[in-house]
C-alpha cells in the first residue's frame, strides 16, 4: 500500500493564471490526497475545481476563507478513497477516509494556523479534543505559522513561548514529527536568506507509522508561493537483496547450539589456518541459510497458531476434563508461546540496535518501532547526482560506489618523505613487548571486550557468535592469529568491509552528508582489537599533552575546559586574539599510509609491528551498503576505517605529526598562543588543542603568525594527505580585532563570532547563560518523544529517561552548573514522558515528582535528580585535581588560579566570565568534608589542619594544643623523625598538657611514615577510597528529605499522641493510611 499526501500554502487561488500554474504542478507531483491552505476561496468552487486539479474524479472538502484571508481545501481521488467531513474547526479542517481497494481507514486534519500566539491556542485545544474522538491512523498537516525549535528559524538562538506551546501540543497529541528531506526551511521572505523558517510540516500518530515501512516527508521546489509544498510519501518497502546476518534469536531455539557444533565438527578443510577458518565460516553460513528457511521468524503467525491450538484445547475442556497427556500438551503450548514471544523481542532488539534496554520487559513493540524508524532515517530514497535529485535506485547505487572509490583513491602520485622532528619514541623493551606472541588468555580477553550485538561485516557473524561458541571455535581462531603473528598476513577475505552510510543530519541528500561507518568481519575485528589493546599501553608516552582523544587518563572535557579558560583569560585581559576552528576534510578517509608507517617507524615501532599495520590497512576491500544492499567490491589506496578498533589510535599517531609542527612553531615564537598565569605558578601558553580531527588554534592577530600557520597546514597536507576544509573552518576574533576579515582572507575561511561550540560544549558563553542549554532541551524533547511512551513499559520508560541523561544533559553538566530554570524545564519533559504511557494517552502520576527522584531503596523510582547529578559530575574535577599529577588541564588551572594547597586551587572572587573553573571550585567546601588523607611521606599533609588520622583535623580534636604548637602549618613529615614523632610547642607544657600530648601519640601509634610514598586523598564513602560520580550522587541523595520520611514521622507522632490519650490499639489506622497517602502523593500538588 502506498499513500502520497501533498500539503501546500498556495497563498491564494483566485487568479486564473495562478490556478493554471497550480494545476500543472499538482499534475507533475502526482499526489493521492492534496491539502491546500490559504486558498482565499469562498462559496461554490465546482466551476473552478478542474482548473485547480485536472481530475474529474476529484472529491473536495472545504473550509471557506474569512474575507480575503484563510481558507482550507482537501482534495482526493474518488477512485482510490472514500472521503467524508468529520469536523470544521476555527483553524483546521478534518476529513475521514477509507480505501476503495483495501480496508485502510484513517483521518487527516489540515491546518492553517493564525499568526497570533493567543488565537493559535484555540487550535491547540481543538486538536487535543479531536485526539479523544479519533481512533486509528491520523495525519495532521499544513501551515502552523510557528516553528517547533529555535533551530528551525534563521537568526534565532532561543526557544520562545510560542515554540514551547507548539511542541507541548505535539507531545500531548503523541505525534511523530518526521524529519524533513530536501531542505531545512519551508517558508522564506522573498529571496532573503536571512529570514526563513520551517512553519509547514506533517505530523502523524504512531499508529500511522505501524502501517508503513517507509515514511518520507520531503520539501518540493518553491514555485508560485513563498511556501514550499511538502509531500508525505508512505509505502511498503519493496524487495531488496540483503546479505546474511546471524540472528541472535537463533540462540534461543532448542537444539540450535548442538546443531552448530555438529556442523562445525563435520567440516574437513586443509590448508593455512586462516584459510581453514574462513572456509569453515563460509560452510557454516551455508548451513545456517538452509536451516533458517525452515525456522523463519514469522512470529505473529506462529503466535496466532499457538493461541488457536490453546483455544481448541479450552473448548474441549469445557465439554470434558482433559487427560494428563492433553494437559501436558496444553501446558507446552503456553511455554512455546512465551518462547516465541521472547525470540521475537530478541530479534527486534537486535534490529533496533538499542543498547540501553534489555529484552525481557515486554518491549517488543518499542524495539520494532525503533528498528523501523532507524531504517527510515538511514534509507536513501533520493540522492543528488550530478547536481540533480534522483530517486532512481540504479543511479543512486552507481553514484555511491563511484564516490567511495574516489574517496579512498590516492590523488597524488608522490608525496615528500618528510621526517617529523620532535616526535617521542618508545623504548626497545616496549617494542619487544608490543611484538610478543599472542596467548589464549589475551585473545579471549580482547574478544570479550567487543560489543556483542553491533552490526556484523560481510561475514554476517556478530561478535556474540564468536563469544558464544568460543570453546568450539578457539582452536581455529588461535591458530589463525598465531599464523598472523609469525607471517604478518591473514586471509584477504577477513578484511572485506561494508560501508554503512549514516546520515549526519535529517534529510541528507548529498553523499557528503553521510558518515561512512565500516562494518568489518569478526575475525579481523578480533585481530584489530588485540593490536589496539597493546597500542593503548604506550600512547601516553607517544601522544603529546595537547592531544586529548583516545589516551587513557585524558578526557574530551579536558580540551573544552582548557580552551574556555584560555578564552576567558584573554577576554578579561582585554588584548585582541584569534581562535581558529579547523575542519579537516574527511580526516580518517584521507590518511596517507606511507606517512603513517613513516611516523610509526620514527616513534620506534618494530618491523613486525609495521608489517602488521600495513597488512591491516592495505588488504581492505569495500562494498557500499545502499538501503541494505551491498554494491561494488573495490580496493582502497589510503584512509583509516571508522569502525575499525585500530583506526582511532592510528589516527592520533598520524596527527602527532601536526602536533609536533605546532610545538616547534610555538617554541620558536613563530606562533604565539594564549597565556594563562601570574598566580604564583609558571605561566602556561596554549597555542593549539586537538581532539582527534577537532582542532583549535589560538594565536595573536598578527599576519605573520597566520601566514606561518598556513604554511604548517600546507606542509602537513603534502606529507599526510590530511587537508583542511576551509569552507567549513572559521576564524573567531577574541575581543576587538579590526583586521579580522584580512586575517581570514589569508587562510581562506569564514569569520565566526563568539559564543560558539567546541566538541559539543558551549564556548565563549557566560556560564549562567540559559542559551547554553537550548540545544539540550531540544534534543531531550526529541529523544523523549511522546509516541515512544506508548510502546514502552513503565520500566522501559524509566530506563530511557535516565539513559537519555547519560548522553545529553550529562555531557554539558560535566563542565557547567545547570540553572534552576533549565532543571525545571527538563523535569517537566521527563515527568510528562514517564506518566503518559497509558494507551488512552492520559497520564496519571502514581507518586509525586520529588518522591520519584528518590532512590528505590527509599521508596522512589530512581530517576536522576539533575541538580544533584550536576554537582556530583562537577566534583569529579575536584577529585581529579587531587589525583592527577601532570595533566595539561591541571597545569593550566594552577597557572591561572594559583594553588591553595596540594589538593585545591586558591579561592577566586573575580567575575565568572566564560570560564568554568570558578563554579567547580565553589564546591570544594562540600567535597572536602567527604575526603581524608592517607599519609605517605607526609610532605603534602598539614599535621594540625588536614583530616588524616581521624574524622576531624587534630586542631579540632586538640584545640588547646593547637594554640601553643610551634608551627600551625607544619607538614606531617616535619613532625616525624627516625626515632618517631617529634611535636614542637612554643613553650614548656603543663602536666595536664603532657597528658593531652600522650593522647595524640596514642592515636598516632599505628601510623608510620614512608618517605618513598606519596600522600593521597581518599573518598570516605567507598571501600577502595576512590571517588565516583555515582557514589557522590548516592551520598547526596541521603541528605534529601523524603516525603516518605515525613509520613513515617507523622505516623510515629500519631501513635505517641494516641498513647498519651489512653488509646492502646487505635482503630483509626485507616485514616492514618489515608493521611500517609496524601503526604506521599499529594503534597505540593493542586488540591
From TrEMBL:
Chain segments annotated as transmembrane: none
PANTHER family: REVERSE TRANSCRIPTASE ZINC-BINDING DOMAIN-CONTAINING PROTEIN, REVERSE TRANSCRIPTASE ZINC-BINDING DOMAIN-CONTAINING PROTEIN-RELATED-RELATED
Domain of life assignment: Eukaryota
UniProt domain Reverse transcriptase: residue ranges: 483-763
CDD domains the UniProt entry points to: RT_nLTR_like (cd01650)
PROSITE patterns according to UniProt: RT_POL (PS50878)
Gene Ontology molecular-function annotations: catalytic activity
Pfam families with a match to the protein in the record: Exo_endo_phos, RVT_1
Protein name in UniProt: Reverse transcriptase domain-containing protein
Organism lineage: Eukaryota, Viridiplantae, Streptophyta, Embryophyta, Tracheophyta
Amino acid at each position: 500500500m502506498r499513500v502520497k499526501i501533498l500539503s501546500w500554502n498556495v497563498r491564494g487561488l483566485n487568479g486564473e493564471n495562478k490556478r493554471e500554474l497550480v494545476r500543472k504542478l499538482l499534475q507533475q507531483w502526482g499526489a493521492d490526497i492534496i491539502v491546500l491552505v490559504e486558498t482565499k476561496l469562498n462559496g461554490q468552487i465546482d466551476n473552478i475545481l478542474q482548473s485547480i486539479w485536472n481530475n474529474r474524479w476529484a472529491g473536495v472538502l472545504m473550509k471557506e476563507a474569512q474575507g480575503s484571508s484563510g481558507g482550507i481545501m482537501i482534495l482526493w481521488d474518488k477512485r482510490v478513497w472514500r472521503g467524508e467531513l468529520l469536523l470544521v474547526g476555527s483553524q483546521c479542517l478534518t476529513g475521514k477516509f477509507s480505501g476503495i481497494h483495501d480496508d485502510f481507514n484513517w483521518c487527516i486534519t489540515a491546518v492553517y494556523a493564525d499568526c497570533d500566539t493567543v488565537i493559535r491556542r484555540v487550535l491547540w485545544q481543538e486538536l487535543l479534543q479531536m485526539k479523544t474522538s479519533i481512533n486509528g491512523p491520523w495525519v495532521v498537516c499544513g501551515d502552523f505559522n510557528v516553528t517547533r525549535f529555535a533551530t528551525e528559524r534563521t537568526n534565532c538562538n532561543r526557544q520562545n513561548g510560542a515554540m514551547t506551546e507548539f511542541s507541548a501540543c505535539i507531545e500531548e497529541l503523541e505525534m511523530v514529527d518526521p524529519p524533513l528531506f530536501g531542505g531545512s526551511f519551508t517558508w522564506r521572505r522573498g529571496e532573503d536568506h536571512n529570514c526563513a523558517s520551517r512553519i509547514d510540516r506533517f505530523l502523524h500518530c504512531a499508529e500511522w507509522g505501524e502501517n508503513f515501512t517507509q515514511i518520507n516527508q520531503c520539501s518540493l521546489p518553491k514555485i508560485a508561493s513563498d511556501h514550499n509544498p511538502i509531500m508525505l510519501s508512505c509505502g511498503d518497502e519493496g524487495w531488496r537483496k540483503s546479505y546474511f546476518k546471524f540472528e541472535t534469536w537463533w540462540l534461543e531455539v532448542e537444539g540450535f547450539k548442538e546443531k552448530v557444533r555438529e556442523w562445525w565438527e563435520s567440516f574437513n578443510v586443509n590448508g593455512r589456518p586462516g584459510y581453514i577458518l574462513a572456509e569453515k565460516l563460509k560452510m557454516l553460513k551455508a548451513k545456517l541459510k538452509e536451516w533458517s528457511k525452515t525456522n523463519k521468524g514469522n512470529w505473529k503467525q506462529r503466535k496466532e497458531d499457538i493461541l488457536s491450538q490453546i483455544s481448541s484445547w479450552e473448548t474441549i475442556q469445557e465439554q470434558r476434563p482433559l487427560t494428563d497427556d492433553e494437559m501436558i500438551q496444553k501446558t507446552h503450548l503456553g511455554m512455546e508461546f512465551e518462547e516465541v514471544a521472547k525470540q521475537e523481542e530478541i530479534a527486534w532488539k537486535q534490529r533496533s540496535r538499542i543498547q540501553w534496554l534489555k529484552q525481557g520487559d515486554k518491549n517488543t513493540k518499542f524495539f520494532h518501532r525503533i528498528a523501523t524508524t532507524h531504517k527510515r532515517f538511514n534509507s536513501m530514497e533520493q540522492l543528488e547526482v550530478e547536481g540533480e535529485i534522483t530517486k532512481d535506485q540504479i543511479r543512486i547505487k552507481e553514484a555511491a560506489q563511484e564516490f567511495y572509490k574516489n574517496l579512498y583513491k590516492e590523488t597524488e602520485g608522490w608525496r615528500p618523505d618528510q621526517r617529523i622532528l620532535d616526535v617521542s619514541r618508545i623504548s626497545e623493551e616496549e617494542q619487544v613487548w608490543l611484538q610478543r606472541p599472542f596467548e589464549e588468555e589475551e585473545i579471549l580477553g580482547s574478544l570479550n571486550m567487543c560489543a556483542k550485538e553491533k552490526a556484523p561485516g560481510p561475514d554476517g557473524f556478530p561478535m556474540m557468535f564468536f563469544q558464544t561458541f568460543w570453546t568450539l571455535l578457539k582452536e581455529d581462531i588461535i591458530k589463525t592469529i598465531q599464523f598472523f603473528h609469525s607471517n604478518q598476513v591473514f586471509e584477504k577475505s577477513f578484511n572485506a568491509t561494508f560501508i554503512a552510510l549514516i546520515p549526519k543530519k535529517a534529510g541528507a541528500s548529498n553523499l557528503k552528508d553521510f558518515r561512512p561507518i565500516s562494518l568489518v568481519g569478526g575475525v579481523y575485528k578480533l585481530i584489530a582489537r588485540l593490536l589496539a589493546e597493546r597500542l593503548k599501553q604506550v600512547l601516553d608516552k607517544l601522544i603529546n599533552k595537547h592531544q586529548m582523544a583516545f589516551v587513557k587518563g585524558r578526557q574530551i572535557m579536558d580540551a573544552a575546559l582548557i580552551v574556555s579558560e584560555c578564552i576567558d583569560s584573554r577576554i578579561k585581559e582585554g588584548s585582541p586574539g584569534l581562535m581558529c576552528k579547523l575542519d579537516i576534510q574527511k580526516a580518517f578517509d584521507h590518511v596517507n599510509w606511507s606517512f603513517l608507517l613513516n611516523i610509526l617507524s620514527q616513534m620506534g615501532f618494530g618491523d613486525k609491528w609495521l608489517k602488521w599495520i600495513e597488512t591491516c590497512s592495505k588488504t581492505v576491500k569495500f562494498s557500499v551498503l545502499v538501503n541494505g544492499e551491498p554494491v561494488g567490491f573495490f580496493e582502497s589506496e589510503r584512509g583509516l576505517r571508522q569502525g575499525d578498533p585500530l583506526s582511532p589510535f592510528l589516527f592520533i599517531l598520524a596527527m602527532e605529526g601536526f602536533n609536533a609542527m605546532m610545538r616547534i612553531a610555538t617554541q620558536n615564537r613563530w606562533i604565539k598562543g594564549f597565556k594563562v598565569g601570574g598566580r604564583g605558578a609558571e605561566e602556561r601558553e596554549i597555542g593549539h588543542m586537538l581532539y582527534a580531527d577537532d582542532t583549535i588554534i589560538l594565536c595573536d592577530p598578527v599576519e605573520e603568525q597566520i601566514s606561518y600557520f598556513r604554511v604548517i597546514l600546507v606542509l602537513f597536507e603534502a606529507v599526510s594527505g590530511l587537508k583542511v576544509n576551509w569552507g567549513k573552518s572559521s576564524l573567531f576574533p577574541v575581543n576587538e580585532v579590526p583586521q579580522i576579515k584580512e586575517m581570514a582572507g589569508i587562510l581562506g575561511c569564514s569569520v565566526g563570532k563568539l559564543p560558539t561550540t567546541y566538541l559539543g560544549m558551549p564556548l565563549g558563553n557566560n556560564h549562567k547563560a540559559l542559551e547554553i542549554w537550548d540545544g539540550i532541551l531540544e534534543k531531550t524533547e526529541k529523544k523523549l518523544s511522546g509516541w515512544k511512551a506508548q510502546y514502552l513499559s513503565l520500566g522501559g520508560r524509566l530506563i530511557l529517561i535516565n539513559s537519555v541523561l547519560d548522553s545529553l544533559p550529562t555531557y554539558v553538566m560535566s563542565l557547567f552548573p545547570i540553572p534552576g530554570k533549565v532543571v525545571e524545564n527538563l523535569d517537566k519533559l521527563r515527568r510528562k514522558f514517564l506518566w503518559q504511557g497509558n494507551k488512552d494517552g492520559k497520564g496519571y502520576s502514581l507518586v509525586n515528582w520529588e518522591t520519584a527522584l528518590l532512590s528505590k531503596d527509599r521508596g522512589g523510582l530512581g530517576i536522576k535528580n539533575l541538580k544533584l547529578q550536576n554537582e556530583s559530575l562537577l566534583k569529579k574535577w575536584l577529585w581529579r585535581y587531587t589525583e592527577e599529577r601532570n595533566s595539561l588541564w591541571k597545569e593550566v588551572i594552577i597557572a591561572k588560579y594559583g594553588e591553595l594547597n596540594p589538593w585545591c586551587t586558591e579561592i577566586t572572587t573575580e567575575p565568572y566570565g566564560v570560564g568554568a573553573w570558578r563554579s567547580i571550585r565553589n564546591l570544594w567546601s562540600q567535597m572536602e568534608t567527604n575526603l581524608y588523607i592517607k599519609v605517605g611521606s607526609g610532605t603534602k599533609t598539614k599535621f594540625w589542619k588536614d583530616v588524616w588520622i581521624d574524622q576531624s583535623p587534630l586542631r579540632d580534636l586538640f584545640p588547646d594544643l593547637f594554640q601553643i604548637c610551634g608551627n600551625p602549618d607544619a607538614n606531617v613529615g616535619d613532625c616525624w623523625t627516625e626515632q618517631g614523632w617529634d611535636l614542637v610547642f612554643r613553650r614548656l607544657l603543663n602536666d595536664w598538657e603532657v597528658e593531652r600530648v600522650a593522647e595524640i601519640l596514642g592515636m598516632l601509634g599505628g601510623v608510620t611514615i614512608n618517605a618513598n610514598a606519596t600522600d593521597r586523598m581518599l573518598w570516605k564513602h567507598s571501600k577502595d577510597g576512590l571517588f565516583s560520580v555515582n557514589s557522590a550522587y548516592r551520598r547526596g541523595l541521603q541528605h534529601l528529605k523524603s516525603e516518605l520520611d515525613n509520613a513515617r514521622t507523622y505516623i510515629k507522632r500519631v501513635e505517641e499522641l494516641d498513647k498519651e490519650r489512653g488509646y492502646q490499639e487505635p482503630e483509626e489506622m485507616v485514616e492514618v493510611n489515608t493521611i500517609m497517602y496524601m503526604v506521599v502523593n499529594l503534597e505540593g500538588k493542586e488540591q
